Structures are given as structure tokens and as C-alpha cells.
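Batch manifest, entry 17 of 40.
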Amino acid sequence: MLGVVSIQEAMKIAQEAGLDLAKVSSDNAPPPATCKLMDYGKYRYEQQKREKDAKKNQRVIQTKEIRLSAVIDVGDAKRLANQTAKFLEGGDKVRASILLRRREQAHPEIAMKIMEEYLEAISASYTIEKPLKQEGRMIAVTLAPASKK
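Output type: C-alpha cells
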């Protein structure tokens, strides 16, 4: 703590100590700015190291898409349900959808039934982020992994 000194004197003290003079207070602070004597290169290195460690520990959640069909076979539906369970256990979100084509559009209840059976077949625990809904020719549901407590 050197108290209030002029900028020229602070620069001289920093130069004699072989350090840098860094402004600590914000720009909208009253006129006597708070400055600190520090090795700025070392400070930046440690800051970059902390940022790199923080980035290493974060996980990006991806949204995977599973496409079913209104005429899907039982074995294929089970295979897709198992794949969905793997995605959910891995921490990714899953959007399952059925695209209705031609005459399938006249009977969306069949596709809804297939989607409900598919949701029952998923062995992993999940929460429904967006409920099962028909939007035009597409029937879709978005699943997220269940929160771990």
C-alpha cells in the first residue's frame, strides 16, 4: 500500500521493481484510479490456464435425432429404442420423429401408437422436454436425460 501517488511516480516504482503497473479499478470509478504492481505476463498465463481447465471440465450437450416410420417393424423399433437409451445415458438430448407420407397422413393415430410403444421400450430414465405432438406431417417428441440427484 503506497497510498496516493502520481502516475509518473508509480511508473518509476514499477520500473525499478521490474514489474508492470496494472489498473485494477473500473473505468467509471472516481479519479484516483487503483493500480497494482504485478508481473502481467505471469498473470495472463495463470488466467489462460484457469480458462483452459474450466473449458476441459464442461460438457456440450448435443441433440441427436432418431427417425422412425409409421410402418416400422418391432425389431427395428427395439433397436432404435436401445440406441436412444445409449444417447440418453451419454448425456445427450434425443428428438424422435415420424414423417407421415402419402396415405399415412390419413391415419396419424397409427404413428402416435408406434411412438408411444417406442417411448415405453426405452430402458434409460428420461424426462420429456417437448411432449409428443403432431406438427403438419411430422410427429415428434424431444427427450432429455433424467436429472441426477
